[in-house]
Amino acid sequence: MVENKKSKMQKESTYRTKIVDLLEHAENYHNFYYQTEIFTGPSLYFHKRSLDTRYFEQNDAAFEKHLEYIYATLASWGMHRMGPGGPKMKPFDIFKNSVSAMKDKIGAAQKISPDSITQSDFDNLKDIFMTIKVMESKTSIIGNSKVMAHMLPNVIPPIDREYTLIFLKNNKNIKNDLEIEWQITKEFLTEFFIPVVVSNKFRETSKTWLKDNIRFPWDTSPLKIVDNLIIGAVRKRK
Q1: Reported pTM
Q2: 66-110: per-residue pLDDT in tens?
Q3: Is residue 219 within 8 Å of residue 213, measured between CB atoms?
Q4: What are the boundaries of each domain within the chain?
Q5: How far is CA 18 from CA 13, 26, 191, 192, 225, in A?
Q6: What angle do CA 102, 78, 55 make, to 5 degrees?
């Protein structure tokens, strides 16, 4: 028990250090993100169309269009590679059918605010996360978080190995277990992402970026800005 408490305290301290680092160097990391190579073309177009179509209001046709844009976004983000190697996405119908029964829960989750998120909200988010089937691989956290980041950009960030895991855990390793992968997602949210986006310092720093979608086209939500800062931080260290 003492060891577990010590481990928890060390983990909390690590996250606090990373929060301070990101907030203190936000301008620097943001500049570096936009100075280094960023994707445009289909990657940005389908990302924005996914966000624009997320309020489907339980309309089946609108919901399917939203899912099509998400599916295209993930493909343009490199989640599906032609040929024998690389990541592979499931057929669209499997993806669509996996989340079709979640329309009500997704609609409810779109109203969640990071300022007042409850255990009931987390239970709802978990149900959505555990239901999504988008990747052929046994690892779910990468694909599922990116799907949810477009359905629920107010509360879920995209998670990847190259940047998120390196910045927050200092390695790319993921145990392929859906329950564990959700717990990692929830931990990232509660211990890092939400504390950053609700802080006055972040809100003050980021408000001009959110308004300037010409210079900063990838600053599409507060959580996406945090993702961009993480990318800038990891790239700068490399």
Answers
A1: 0.94
A2: 999 999 999 999 989 887 878 899 999 999 999 999 999 999 999
A3: yes
A4: 2-237
A5: 9, 12, 10, 8, 15
A6: 30
